[in-house]
Amino acid sequence: MDSPSSTPSYLDMQAQIGITKHNGGYPATDRLLELCRVAHGSHVLYVGSGIGVGPSYLARTRRCHVVAGDISPKMLDWTRIRARRDGVTDLVEPALADIRDLPFADARFDVVLVESVLSFVADKEHAISECVRVTRPGGWVGTNEAVWRGDPPKDELGADIDALGAWLAPQVQFRALWDGSGLVDREFEFHDLSMAAEARSRIRWIGWRWLLPAWGRAVRIALTDPAARRALREQATYPPSLVAQMGYALTAGRRP
Q1: What is the pTM of this model?
Q2: H-helix or E-strand spanning residue 202
Q3: 2, 24, 230, 240: which could form a disulfide with 6 (CB 3.0–4.6 Å)?
Q4: All domains of the chain, ordered by start, with CATH?
């Protein structure tokens, strides 16, 4: 019998299956691009490429050159597949990158975008400073991250988030963190989470053509790997009472 320590993490399971977490779907990303003044042809670092939906979307819709950074080699494989499927391999450059120590020169990018990454980083202040460091003066940094409405829950509901390896910040704390980033012209928007709306937006974000094979992989993994089956059972759903305490924040700021 597998020990609990052998249970794959939430991010490992996403990489195996070929799915990715994203708050608010395309409308949230479009709003973030608007807040960050992403122009056609911008040189963008997209931190947390996941399965490559965001980087490919930027390349398709705005013809940006996108460095798609992720800490997971498997997610970068999915990013390459997505870019090839969407016909944007010339514009999407996968790169192994940890937001806590970005492997890029100072002031390299016009825009740095981070979606659903800081939720899994304990030292968010340092991670944001790394994003600012690699942004050119006058360029923009933007995030889309899950946050608590108020204080984090202390009961078993909080344990559900802990099981995902996530460290969500309360809305007020995240805003204070953003205000201390050194960025100017800062924006902060809080949006509610709805389970039904998130399910619909996630399906549209990933797409049926991608989602059905991913579900097939999830079933196959669950049937053949006890540790992965346990992980899927523990990580699959959030109770409605937990979602009601969460939202997501869109932030943007310009490096002076």
Answers
A1: 0.92
A2: helix 195-206
A3: 2
A4: 4-254 (3.40.50.150)
